[in-house]
Design brief:
The structure is a homodimer. With about 525 residues, chain A is an alpha/beta fold. The first copy, chain A, has two domains: about 65-140 and about 180-260, Glutaconate Coenzyme A-transferase (3-Layer(aba) Sandwich), CATH 3.40.1080; about 270-505, Glutaconate Coenzyme A-transferase. In chain A, the strands form eight sheets. In chain A, strands 19-18-17-16-20-23-27-28-29 form a nine-stranded mixed β-sheet. In chain A, strands 6-15-14-11-7-8-9 form a seven-stranded parallel β-sheet. In chain A, a hairpin with a 5-residue loop joins strand 12 (about 190) and strand 13. At the A-B interface, loops of A face loops of B.
Chain lengths: ~525, ~525
């Protein structure tokens, strides 16, 4: 329905345009023009990277000491004012003690209309809901996991949320789609010059890669640490040469919540079956061979797949070139056992991961720039042999949803999910249904990943290969694996659960989903209750 | 003489302006407007960092393989054409086999008017003189050590050379003063994606920091290696995400010339005395204490000073926080012995330095960005407690020259020299005369470093402290060291050698000397013969 007009953030009215995926998306979001999704690899940027202001050493202390008395002091010096874009990062996950403080201070100072640009938000950030209500924060650009997503889905956020993948977030910063006024980077260890690392200190989280782009491109950068060391803080995952102010606090994170404890192997028989089928599929497809690479997620099923890989590799005498992690005790063990040359780590999930990164030069910290930025001269997501990812819904054309549930609520971020779809083989190991709701649907509630990039669906009742992947279909044809069409899987689920009612929405757009190139692939609407 | 006009590269006529150091400099160089030097810390940039074009992964191979058939092939694909700015780097010093090839190819293709933008040039690049003569290369922006400097000093280069410090080179790239069309980076080890490292491989040189800015900001980046490894090349000192093409060759450097062999402790009694006096001065001034830092040069005198420091530190039971290097076997030994926590290394000078950097996480590779960029939010040069530097001439106001000899010939680059002047204490340990030519003069031939940044001159016949450094003068007043005024030292030299004749110049400007902030501090003129 081109020619449709809709409210998209504040008073702005925006024309609705059908994008290349057939989704209706607005031409403007929060008053800014956006480009509708044009297909995988179709949108070609023609601009230049964003250029932050040129600084001068003459404006910074010769002795390198950038310590400010407090976070409030630093934010005032950084010029905090109405309408600014403020970024924070999710290295501490649900144990973050810094982001909430930033907006407590903004509230105290009477600053309004801020855009919060986190690399992800967690339930601990439900603290910010009053600020979304009173206008301290206008809207969030970033994932809204749990309570913030529910708040947005109920139509209560003043602006429209913008969700990006980790790579898309770097792209947006680099290209100047989002111009960060103040980046606040919580750092487990830092020096007074602003060099910072995540691999040591009381709030050790491993790496600070999600803040790399912010440090490079933000107008002002504030480091907050509870472990100040003399210059130089080595490794300098974040370079002090990008930093304006350093703040020392007593405690910046809750260690037991930073290390999230999601790294438990699944005990569910169905999940174990899915993991086993996934691993066997990779073996049958000839993926598990010397020098291969795989991405290991941190969820229960993904972890179990890793364990199966490990067994296979030992049996075959095969060594991986690299594991793309989410590291944890299991991947670290593989590195130390010599089952892989490298871990290329985007995010450490337990203390063994942190220790290994600190001690082992072959446990490499990566960033969304190296791993995921689609507006680079390549990135390594496309070089990974196989990735396993989750999804809330998949449709008959293999399109997938990872942000909304079938009830329409926006409850998850995109994370690196969209970026990982570019791997050589993308597998979604998912249960056929959850709480008696089938996962395979006619049309996904929210389109996050185009079906052409999703190769295989593995469920407890069979494996469906994307018909576009004729080579893959041939390779496993005689494997004895339970191969089915995606239609068969869908019918099987519906024969058990019935066909669920569709979620109901109002016309109001509450969030936009960006594709890895910054175009709008879909929108999320307010849930009708 | 404002109002003077002079030819400054090609046909351009330029007004001459007296800068804050009292030197006459042109308003334009090679047809581009320049800013005259305004004093230390006085020029405040108001622009934005340069934004190279936004790339898209859609234009790069999914499997990450960017191999080109040959360097010629890569240069053609990179669009090599008349007038482009081409950068190369001096990690291989006089053993470089890559830069000359680039211009052999340009000559073969009939490309004209190139600007060569090396991080430094060496005698091996005298090979390029015919290309400077026939117009393949219009001019050089970078140091012109030895034969190329002589060629320029004789007025034979078509354009005006521009000399920058290592930090100034990064600043120029970052700020867009120099826009690199094609960066050719010779890399001792690389993968086909373009990740590259200098710390291993047949042509191992340690690090690739001088090419960092080029990789970040050049339109096209070519990696040339003789040691191709499977992805990922770890460490990735240069990120493949910035790289367009990778070329594999049989041999990119001559190992025995890469590791320059300059790391011999001086045997000259005069030089040893200068080294001893310098070390004693630092002790008397209270600089050699727990947690201090020093920069260790690679020349014979500087090395000897390092040895004296080492002895003092052992005797006093003192440990340095970091050594700023130029690493070599001596600094590595200090790190391994526990006499310093870190080596912050800008350039490795022997194979022990390379080994240490490869093996020891506390031997940190740095770049002109972290160390020297004056248009950053600070850099660590100003945090070093003491640096020792050379000079060809010093005047009575402590201004120093490091690029021309007293005969007027431009024979040296600036290197990190200007950047290091920002240390807390800058000492020039220099002989009172060389070849019977006094080093202390009324006015330096070429002004490279303002006297206000130079604290101490140490000669074999006495030590002169800059009168501006009253605190320092007090500290060593009772030390028993042979303290003199710089006038006294000058007179002493002249009483031995006489007053030498001044070099004679034509009006023609053959090179400009940039200050760390991109302003023009002085020019070099053609030598009259």
């Amino acid at each position: 329905m081109p020619g449709n007009w809709i409210k998209t953030g504040g008073l702005a009215m925006s024309e609705m345009i059908k994008n290349a995926a057939g989704r209706l998306v607005p031409s403007e979001i929060n008053g800014k023009k956006v480009v509708p999704y044009m297909g995988v690899g179709k949108y070609k940027p023609d601009g230049r990277k964003y250029g932050p202001p040129v600084a001068s050493c003459a404006d910074y202390p010769d002795d390198g000491n950038k310590l400010s008395a407090s976070l409030k002091d630093a934010l005032i010096k950084a010029g905090l004012k109405d309408g600014m874009v403020i970024s924070t990062h999710h290295h501490f996950r649900n144990g973050d003690l810094v982001a909430n403080q930033v907006f407590d201070i903004a509230k105290e100072l009477g600053v309004k209309g801020l855009v919060w640009f986190p690399s992800a938000s967690f339930p601990c950030h439900a603290h910010l809901i009053p600020y979304l209500e009173d206008g301290t924060i206008h809207h969030i650009e970033g994932s809204m996991n749990g309570p913030l997503g529910r708040f947005a889905s109920e139509g209560k956020m003043k602006g429209v949320g913008v969700l990006r993948s980790h790579g898309g977030r770097y792209q947006a910063i680099q290209d100047g789609d989002v111009r960060i006024d103040i980046a606040v980077i919580a750092a487990p260890t830092a020096d007074s010059f602003g060099n910072a690392t995540g691999d040591r200190g009381p709030a050790a989280c491993g790496l600070l890669g999600f803040a790399l782009g912010d440090s490079q491109y933000a107008e002002k950068v504030v480091i907050v640490t509870d472990n100040l060391v003399p210059f130089p803080c080595i490794p300098w995952q974040i370079h002090g040469n990008y930093v304006d102010y350093v703040v020392k606090q007593d405690k910046i994170g809750i260690p037991e919540k930073i290390i999230s404890g999601t790294t438990q192997i699944t005990k569910s028989p169905d999940r174990l079956l899915i993991a086993e089928l996934t691993a066997k599929f990779c073996e049958a497809a000839g993926i598990v061979k010397d020098g291969f690479s795989f991405q290991a997620g941190a969820g229960g099923t993904a972890l179990s797949i890793g364990i199966y890989f490990q067994q296979m590799m030992r049996e075959k005498g095969v060594k991986a070139r690299f594991i793309r992690a989410g590291s944890n005790q299991y991947t670290v063990k593989m590195l130390e056992e010599g089952l892989t040359d490298y871990i290329l780590d985007g995010q450490t999930f337990d203390l063994e991961g942190v220790r290994s990164m600190r001690e082992n030069a072959n446990h490499v910290n990566t960033s969304p720039f190296t791993s995921y930025n689609y507006h680079g001269k390549g990135n390594f997501a496309s070089m990974v042999d196989v990735v396993v990812l989750g999804a809330t819904e998949v449709d008959l054309d293999f399109n997938a949803n990872v942000v909304t549930h079938s009830d329409g609520y926006l409850l998850h971020g995109i994370g690196g999910w969209q970026n990982c779809l570019f791997s050589k083989c993308t597998i979604l190991p998912i249960p056929l249904f959850r709480d008696r709701i089938p996962v395979i649907v006619d049309e996904v509630t929210t389109l996050c990943g185009p079906g052409e990039l999703i190769d295989v669906i593995v469920t407890e009742r069979g494996i469906a290969i994307n018909p576009r992947r004729t080579g893959l279909i041939e390779k496993v044809a005689d494997s004895g694996l339970p191969l089915k069409t995606i239609q068969q899987l869908k019918e099987e689920a519906e024969s058990i659960c019935g066909i669920p009612e569709k979620a109901q929405f109002t016309d109001k757009i509450i969030a936009a989903i960006k594709w890895v190139d910054g175009t709008v692939i879909d929108v999320v609407r307010q849930v009708r209750r």
